[in-house]
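Input sequence (102 aa), recorded before submission:
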Amino acid sequence: MLTFAKLANELIYATKLTNEDLVNILLACVYEPLDLKDKNGNPYYAGKGECSYLLKGKRDVKLEIQRGTSKKEVIDHAEAYFERFLISKILPSLLDDFLENM
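Predicted structure, token format:
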């Protein structure tokens, strides 16, 4: 089973993005179209501590983000979002390694 932590760690290697940048790119695919907010009403953002827990698999992605992955607004925008914000950042020399590991 592909977990958030496995995907994120493979992408960190293939893109050389920081942990925090990559985790927030992945999560924003869901929380932006759904306009999800944190407990204070601010746009959601995973800080360094939360990113560390997520990448180590010691914490699950927030339930509202997990549930949001099946919503039409997210599905309809995911392909274009990933092409714009993630696929273009994968280093060509590491693409084959990334695909093989997935």
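Checked by second reader. The chain has a mean pLDDT of 90.
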